[in-house]
Amino acid sequence: MTLVEPALFTPQSLDHPDRPLGLFRLLRTLVHNPLETWPQPLFTERLFWQRFAGRPLLFVMDPALVDEMLVAKAAVFPKAPIIRRTIGPAVGNESIFTAEGTQWRWQRRAAAPPFRHSTILGFVPAFHAAAARTVADLGSRGGETVDVAELMMATTFDVIVETMLSGAASFDTKRFGQEISHYFDTVGWIAALSILRAPAWLPYPGKRRAREGNLFLKREMARVIAERRARPAATPDLLDFLIAAADPETGRAMTDAELADNLLTFVVAGHETTALALTWALWLVGNAPEVEARLLDEVTRVVGDGPVEAGHIDGLVYAKQVVQEAMRLYPPAPLIPRIASEDVTLGGEAIAAGTPVYVPVYAVHRHAQIWQRPDAFDPDRFAPESARALHRGAYLPFGAGPRICIGAAFAMAEAVAILATLVRAMRFVPLAGHQPLPTIRLTLRPDGGMPMRVEPR
Ligand code: HEM
């Protein structure tokens, strides 16, 4: 008897080179799309050494070793300098995302309250309301082709301002998004120049524009903080918790500059990634009619016609699987860069102090030794019984260990609520022949956006 494999939608994947690119092609490709520099062995080997301009870098793909590195040996593998070099100009070098040790720990504790389970459930009406506004906006446009990536950015931006800043701040959402994009677009240059060990002051295309954008974003955050100091929120939100926090070692509070850096971190990290998870999920669902039918059936059964409420989230099991599978194929944060802070061994490899050690999440998520039909879209991989069999180092859209995403549970509840609301009201139809390719711009974006036709059901 021959087993017939179910027909699964399999998006076009990128062509990865058989072996590492030579320096000239490497630099040129990095600027264009760093993902295209990733060689094939990242998708088949446990570990892979690569030399960049003479210096070694270790990629770790084996789930047990990924786990050992990010969890058990987290103290030995702090964040790599490339993180500060790429993200530091936007959010400072001592904010929750970039700081290390005690300077990081108290900020993480200070930011924790809005991410407690019960608080997140209280945000579900805001998730639903943002999605419902998007549906109303789409309904008024009558079946046009829209850029779903842009649409999801606006929806999740709405959510982050509503939930973390009590809806108090009025932002120019479009300009905000444009400035973030200007900045992210230069990241390939920053990566290329740091491989060449070029000093950070060196000019490159788009640098001035990106700097202006950063200044705009920081000014916006400073404005929000000043407004909040003048008029406290009715119930404390993330900003209030950050303002009230004190460093246990020195007793000092955050300066306004530190508050602005952290606020910007939360606003950027807290909407862009979730928007991308939703963008890729909607496109995948639009290409997989059976998945779409099951999803719709679940939403109708669990939620009915009314708004998505806190009590529905746990019942939207298949919707969660769809989001998880979309983030497996297209992890919004595709790379976790670390550095060995001392001589250490991992999986029998001796790693010298100062060696960059990276987890290429996108490659782990499509690894031939971990997944069957790795490039196929199959939300059933995350059905509860199958998910239990997965090694925790095999699937890490939110990272792992002490630096795991603080917003993971928030993002999952948000993505599920928004996906359910959108899919129930609208059909997202892919454009014939359009194959969006993933490109690394810090996050994993669809190159050229995600144009889709959106029709009311
Ligand atoms: C689907 C959505 C999201 C994805 C895929 C994602 C992914 C990640 C990853 C991989 C990290 C760890 C980076 C590393 O270890 O180098 C991280 C950290 C972080 N994320 Fe998220 N994130 C998402 C949503 C959010 C949300 C909604 C928020 C806040 C509202 C948030 C705020 C943060 C912060 C502050 C950190 C730094 C935590 C620390 O270092 O202590 N993220 N995120």
TrEMBL record:
Any one GO MF annotation of this record: monooxygenase activity
Keywords on record: Heme, Iron, Metal-binding, Monooxygenase, Oxidoreductase
Residues holding heme: 405
UniProt keyword Oxidoreductase present: yes
InterPro entries, per database record: Cyt_P450, Cyt_P450_CS, Cyt_P450_E_grp-I, Cyt_P450_sf, Cytochrome_P450_Monoox
Transmembrane segments: none
UniProt cross-references to PROSITE patterns, sorted A to Z: CYTOCHROME_P450
Co-factor(s): heme
Family per record: Belongs to the cytochrome P450 family.
Protein's name in the database: Cytochrome P450
Source organism (scientific name): Phreatobacter cathodiphilus
